[in-house]
Every structure is written in C-alpha cells, then in structure tokens.
Amino acid sequence: MKKIIIFAMLFLFVSVVQKDGRVLAEEIGRAEIMAELQILKQRMARLEEALAGLAETVPSTQQQTVSPDGSAKVATAPAAPVPVGRKPNPPTDNPEAQLLRQGERSVAEHLEALRKAGQGIEFSGTIEIEASYENYKAQHESGVASSHLDLATAELGVDAFLSPGVRAHIIFAYDKDEGVDLDEAMLHYQAIGVCQPDCTCNAHWFASLGLMKVPFGYYASHFITDPLTLTLGETREVAALAGLNGGPLMLAAGVYNGALDVEGREDHLDKFFAAAFLHLKEGLVPDLSGQVGISYISNIADSIELTDYFADEFAVDSLQARVGGCSAFLSLAFREIFSLEAEWVGALGHFKVDRRFAPKTWNLELAYRPLEALEIGLRYAGSRDGLNFLPEKQYGLVAAYEIFEKTSIGIEYLYEEYENQDRANRVTTQVGVEF
Known about the structure:
By secondary structure, the chain is of the alpha+beta class. It has helices spanning about 1-20, 20-25, 30-55, 95-120, 230-235, 305-315; strands spanning about 60-65, 70-75, 120-135, 145-165, 165-175, 180-190, 205-215, 235-245, 250-255, 260, 270-280, 290-295, 320, 325-335, 340-345, 360-370, 375-385, 395-405, 405-415, 425-435.
C-alpha cells in the first residue's frame, strides 16, 4: 500500500514536470530543481513514517484479491457496525477546535452550577413613595405647615429553601435616617413565617431563630400610616421561639435578651414572650373568615419606638423595673368585601421614671371593598397615659386603588389630638409596589 501511494505521487510529479518542462527549464535552473526534489523527498519520508504508524494502530479494512485474468485488485472491507446506543468516535480536531470545545464545556458546567444554586431561592420586595402635607398646631400657637416627598419603604427580602422544612429568611430595609439596615435575619423550621396568626405552618410544631419581630401584637391595618398599636408594641430582637400548631389553634413562646435592662441586674437571656392565636375554621360560619389572638411580653419597653422614646425623652438606657405588656386583637372579613380590625396594646403598669407614663393604645378599622381593585376604610384610634408619645385621639379616612398588578395608589386623611392639647391634620398620598 505504501509503495502504491509513493508511486502515484512520483508519477504525478513527473507528469507535471513533463507537461511544463519547457517553461520550468526557462524559469529555474538545475540547482533549484535539485532543491525542490530534496524537499519533496523529505515530505515523502514524513508521509511514510505517518503511514507506518497508522498501519500499526489501525487494522486494515482492505484486502487484495486476484481476478480471473491474473490482475490484482484491492477491495474495501465493510466497516464494522456501530453498536446501538453508542456514537462513533469523532474525528480528531485540531488543537484550536479542541480548546474551543473545552471552553464551551467549562462555561456550560458553570452555568449549570449557577442554575442549581439558584433553585430554591426567592426574592421579594416593597417600595413605597409618599407625598404628605401636615398642619401641626401647638396649644396657644399658630399652626405650622409642612410638606414632604419621602421614600417611606424600600425592602428586599431573600428566602432560601435549604431542605425540606428548613428556610432562611433575610430582609434588608432602607431608612432615610440610618440608610440600609438588616431588618430581619432568621431560620425557620416547619413554618412559613414568624408564628403567623393565620397558622401558616407545615407541621404540628415549629421553631424560629434569629433577628425577628417577635409575635407580640398583630398590627393589621388598611391605612398608609401604621396603627398606634404598632408604634407602641412592635419589638425586634434576636430571639428563639418554638410553637405548637393544632389546626385552628396555635401556641408559641420564646426568649430574648432585650435592649433595656434593669439597673444593677446582670445581663442575661431572661426576657420572654408568649402568644395564642385562634383561626376561624373555614366554613364554620358561612362567608366569614378571621382570627383572634392574645400575646404577652415581659418588658414592653423593649419595643422599637419605646426604646428610642426613653433615650430621647428621659435620657436613660436602663430601667428601674420591668413593665410587662399585653395585646389582644380581632380580625374578621365577610365575603372579602367588609373587614374589621380591632386591637388593644398596653403596658401592665407604670414606669418608675415617670409614674404618669403607662401607655395603652387601641385601633379600630372598618374597610369596604366595592370593587376588587378599590378599598375604602375608616379608623378610630387613641391612647391613654402616654404623655405625648402617642395621640389621645386619632380619626382617619383612606381610599386605595390597585392601578396595576402589584401596584397601588392610596390617599388618607388623619386628624390627631394630643394630651397637651396639640392638634395635627395630615394628608398622605402613597404609591406602593410589591414584587
């Protein structure tokens, strides 16, 4: 086989030389012809070495037969069939093609790793922009008017479903005074949220651990401005809680350290809370749904707003004695057209820093939804023994309309009266987006 190929190449070369011999003789000399022949011999030698290596590694698929007239013929044997389910070996690519294929495979592997890492992770967020006008009239003084355009809420939540029953939850929130801050960071076991009153749990018992708003109070509202009950009672602490879910009834309790300690007492993980929620079973009362609950906290001064109030008003960062707090609420909805929210939150005693300070507050709201995208609400709220921390009376009217999916616009009016006879009128418009 090698001799045949070499003979064919020599014959081709001699043919070309004979055909154009006169021209070649005129253009090049004898020395140049000898140089070309030397190069050709070197190429033929390399070709012979390549053919020899190929003959050693690849079995011949050709066989020589003799025809009746005595002449030799070369017949090609049929190629071995490729087994079913297997692909034939691809031809050998050049180094550039192999490098490209390796790069493509590496990129595909990285993309697949990112896709797998992204499974089980959810992002959510809220953006609320408010424009407000306020007229505040202090006793025996003329009113002072002001208007603002604020980014009221900007939150980004990340939920990672780590394994069956285990979920990590983080919320980053923006505040115009403090910038971006960590609002929540916790681990849930067999629960969708922190001890939700609607009993959104996946098992008969559950637990949560981390920075959270502890389950003290309910704070449901149809208004743009937070209810007074939330201002008094909302508490965010690093806590550990566990609970039982018995269908319509849910119980939960937990411990935390707290921001305000008693003077002279060692700093320990000795503050606690407890809550009980009863969910109205679906279908028990036709067209009616809702829940009722009660909760307790061993030191109500650990609430977010009360901690700041003690520092600003009384210039203290510790207490002479702890004062517990209690919350009770009722939330009802009829055919998702009429809604009622009623809640009471209060301190169960007086603070020694000022015997007059024993804040208690309530919030009552009625809402009507004439259209699926339109809601109108009324509010009556107030407080007692709160000095000027909270208004003694608050009346309000709100209307909200969902202009697009997950996008709503609302306007509210609030009138407030304080213990020192100060008065305030406030109009607020809000555009909110949830995703």
